[in-house]
Amino acid sequence: MTGRKNMFLFYFSITLAILSSALYHFSARSIPSNINFAVSLVVTYAVAIGITILVTLLFPAPAGFAFEVKKLNWASFLLAIAIVGIEFGFLLTYRAGWNLGIAAVLVNVVASLILVPVAILVFKDRISWVNILGILVCLTGLVMLNWKR
Prior knowledge:
79% helix
């Protein structure tokens, strides 16, 4: 049973991330440009905190919320800064006229390329020659995305 549960989590988690990312970019691109983007983000985060509280109530921490908060490290705070940077960055990117598909792909590929040495040096991840070939394909794709017709 544990294997089936792990396989479900394996596929469910990546599917959730993919669908949420697509929904994220669609919604960010759909926010009217005549709305102050900071106000838009305040509403976005108010809704997000409501959903997060609901999820916390549905899946409570066994030792309690306060106990879990005490275990947090710097990464949770840095993640908050990164999330706000991503939100502001994409709202401004789309308002500046970037194409929905191009901007999302460009940002994700470049961010992934930046993370490769971090993954190797900090987290001791290993990459194969096939992974290196994939990275070269991504770089080729970036050139093709930005090719002037």
